[in-house]
Amino acid sequence: MAISVIMPALEMAQETGKVLSWRKKEGDRVSKGEPLLEIETDKAVVEIESPGEGILAGVTAQAGAVIPVGQTIGWLVKPGETPPAAAAPAVTGRRQDSEHTQASASPQAGPATPSPAGGRVSPKARRLAREHGVDLARVRGSGSGGEILAEDILAAASSGSARASESAAPGAGGTISAGSAGSADSSVRATVATTATPNADLETPGLVGRLMAERTTQSWTTAPHFFVTREIDAGQLIAAREKFVSTFVSGSDGKTTDKPTHTDLLVALVARVLAVHPRMNASWTPAGIRLHSDVNVAVAMAVDDGVVAPVIHKANTATVAEISSQRRQLTERARTGKLQPADLAGATFTISNLGMYGVDAFTAIIVSPQAGILAVARIADRVVPVDGHPVIRPMLTLTLSTDHRVADGARAAAFLNDLATAISDPQKSLG
Question: Is 408 among the residues known to form the active site?
């Protein structure tokens, strides 16, 4: 029996995936678990393994195709077997939704609706149009039958070519009114777009960059952020790292391998404190607050086209050595675009460290639906009072961003206070 190869869902909010390349060509024999193709999501390039054994046949999505999650893009068949007819071939590089897909859309999302131009508009595209002040009547859809997709809205918003028409700007004698975009802010954006330099250079972000922009915008505009900042003496953290480094020796040459970083120690400490603060290791859902049994800490990492956040699973029970090894492997895979689906799944909290860039302090945007993200700045010598006398100490500024729907100020402050205590005595906290 033929085995279908589908566009996988690697993330909760993923709607489509882009085929980058096939590792095998039609007619090749493929073993189960063998690398079959590479796809690109909003977070990373992911290598997909073969779901079974057989001969690759009936490929309907070539390199560059953007395919809905769950759609069949190829088959694994036995010798002499013919692949089933594809219900919705996708060779144009654009999303093509079947009538069945549109009819079975969830009631909450609503069906795709006709646009003023006669095409159809996906629910996601319509939402993005409202958020970015884009006039749907001025957007040309690139989907099947002229359907307007989310990527069409993002492209129009970045170019400013389809901003919603508003009343004249105040300087021209008119008033700012809430037009089709639904807010005065959209009117301002429309005015700026029309007065921008016509020949200004535009940098078009890739899929990772575009969807990162979309998700951070969604988080910032839907999650009620608040921030708690704490300045901590990092002297004992530095001492603990030096002690761990001295024990990470392998080989007869005495060379140290896998030296732990301050980030590694912070992952371990944060995870252990999260284990006793369940509201900070939680997620907001429409049904209520979900408390997670595992503590999975994501570490934000910069890549060429944005930021990815691979996950160290069950970090509260992992040793510093195990965390250091995992983080290094994840960093290497992120740099080479080889992150696997499991590397990006299941995070319950995120750490973003910009200390290596000399940043003194910053605030970070929550990675929804997580309850919080910790912004870590550099360790720098500062003059602080100790027992009534000025002394120079290595100080570290931490800023906790929290979703107020999940945890209030008191809970966030208690978490940060316990984290400060753990950092002041890492040896005790890490055992």
Answer: yes
- Of 305, 404, 418, 425, which residue is the catalytic one? 404
Q: What is the pLDDT of residues 354-404, one digit of tens each?
A: 999 999 999 999 999 999 999 999 999 999 999 999 999 999 999 999 999
At which of 180, 207, 234 does a domain end? 207
The pTM score is 0.65
Specify the CATH number for the domain of residue 166. 4.10.320.10
Catalytic residue among 28, 185, 360, 408: 408
Confirm whether 403 is a catalytic residue. Answer: no
Let me know if residue 374 belongs to a domain: yes
Q: 413: Cβ–Cβ under 8 A, 6 or more apart, which residues?
A: 228
**Inter-axis angle of helices 235-247 and 409-424, to 10 degrees?**
50
Looking at the structure of the chain, the number of domains it has is 3
Task: Give me the helices (H) in 255-344, please.
Answer: 262-274, 320-335, 341-344
348/290 same-domain check: yes
Alpha helices, DSSP H only, in 259-319? 262-274
Domain housing 195: 112-207
